[in-house]
Design goal:
Blueprint lengths: L2 H6 L5 E3 L8 H9 L4 E4 L5 H14 L4 E6 L5 H10 L4 E5 L7 H6 L3 E6 L2 H10 L4 E4 L5 E2 L5 H11 L4 E4 L5 H9 L4 E4 L1 H4 L8 H8 L6 E4 L7 E4 L2 H9 L6 H18 L22 H8 L3
Helix pairs in contact: 2-3, 3-4
Length: 299
């Protein structure tokens, strides 16, 4: 037991990443039932959708779980109210600062854990009164920052007094041990859980990750200010070429999101975008959430 497991009421210091449209009910409940912390992605969902998903998770587990709050969602204030009304006691946050919502969240007894990309923001979050920070290196899948995990984690640990959860580039127990050696008290994993037995993604998506190599992963959107780590496929190459021709960041981001939706909901792995971390080449089979957590905690 450490500060993370004690604070969150979980058996293992393993947090499942809040992957948009992937971190849904079945996966969240499976991770929590296995002793980790399942995190429900709210993304651009409506408050009503978030409430419904919270109810479904509660039907499948009596263990702690979290909701991820995306503050760029225009309905974030209403979603915060839903989380409080439904008695969820843990949130992770991204795409904006939780500053405006901290008084309300803390009054409700909710543990707040923002995802942060650098030391400066980690210290700002500590000053706001958050309970822990998730230090995410650029090896992670999806939208990324600029700092590598192995330089980010120890610097954040040295800079704050609250617990640090390491994220970005962890897919096996070697990554967990490395993060703990650098002072982290927990880890957050996304890609490894994205192809778990309980993940909602299709067989083509899972097969693509399993068959990927170290060179199968690339970054698109850097020139547009929306750097995203993905599997290098037909669509990723098209978007990469578009970066030199486009000037409209919002339009590019819309094309990126549409392609991601196509991969998630249509399992189209050539005309869709698969967000995946640098660890994809280390993943060779789809396992249950319980098996993944057991592997991560080995030794």
């Amino acid at each position: 037991m450490n500060r993370i497991t004690e604070m969150l009421g979980i058996k293992y210091p393993i947090i499942q990443g809040a992957m948009q449209d992937v971190a849904k009910v079945g996966l969240v409940a499976a991770v929590s039932n296995a002793g980790g912390l399942g995190v429900l992605a709210s993304g651009q969902d409506t408050p009503e959708q978030v409430r419904e998903e919270i109810h479904k998770v509660k039907e499948l587990t009596d263990k702690p779980f979290a909701v991820n709050l995306m503050f760029l969602n225009k309905r974030a204030p209403e979603i915060v109210d839903v989380v409080i009304e439904e008695g969820v006691k843990i949130v992770t946050t991204g795409a904006g600062t939780p500053k405006l919502y901290m008084p309300k969240l803390k009054e409700a007894g909710i543990k707040v854990m923002p995802v942060i990309p650098n030391v400066k923001i980690a210290k700002k979050m500590e000053d706001l009164g958050v309970d822990a920070v998730i230090a995410e290196g650029m090896e992670s899948g999806g939208h990324i920052g600029t700092m590598a995990s192995q330089t980010l984690w120890p610097q954040v640990v040295d800079a704050v007094n609250i617990p640090v959860i390491a994220a970005g580039g962890i897919a096996d127990n070697r990554g967990v041990k490395a993060a703990m050696a650098m002072g982290a008290e927990g880890v957050q994993c996304g890609t490894i859980f994205s192809i778990s037995k309980e993940s909602p993604v299709g067989d083509n998506w899972k097969k693509t990750i399993i068959e990927s190599k170290d060179t199968s992963i690339g970054v698109i959107g850097t020139k547009m200010g929306v750097a995203s780590r993905t599997i290098v496929n037909k669509k990723a190459k098209e978007l990469y070429e578009l970066e030199d021709k486009m000037t409209d960041k919002l339009k590019f981001n819309q094309l990126l999101d549409e392609a991601y939706q196509k991969a998630v909901y249509q399992d189209d792995v050539e005309n869709g975008i698969i967000f995946a971390g640098s660890v994809a080449g280390m993943i060779h089979e789809s396992k249950s959430a319980a098996e993944i957590i057991s592997d991560l905690m080995k030794e």
